[in-house]
Specification:
three-stranded antiparallel sheet; 101 residues; mainly beta; four-stranded antiparallel sheet; 7 strands; 51% strand; 14% helix
């Protein structure tokens, strides 16, 4: 049986991270494009953050969608948050686990 090496998990984590290009946020039924604010890699986890400052996207946040460079949806977080004039930070955390069968 093959044993997965840490380097393979690091490569998969980095490739996953590099595929995520931005986010589309549904605010009151309108999709708006936002950049990735911050990326944190820790072990075999990657967390992508999208930040809306105090004046961006005021209204009801219905979903946040991570997209690739072509606009394809990669991950969707449905929510019902009413955003006023304070900031909002949304996080997507991915943890890798690979099994050999």
């Amino acid at each position: 049986m093959a044993i997965i090496q840490n380097r393979l998990l690091e490569l998969l984590r980095d490739d996953l991270s590099n595929q995520i290009n931005g986010a589309l946020i549904n605010v009151d039924g309108t999709l708006r494009s936002y950049p990735i604010y911050k990326t944190i890699k820790n072990g075999f986890k990657v967390t992508k953050y999208i930040y809306l400052d105090d004046v961006q996207a005021q209204g009801r946040i219905q979903s946040v969608v991570l997209v690739d460079s072509e606009g394809n949806a990669l991950a969707i977080k449905n929510m019902q948050v009413v955003k006023g004039d304070s900031g909002l930070l949304v996080a997507f955390e991915f943890s890798l686990e690979v099994k050999v069968v």
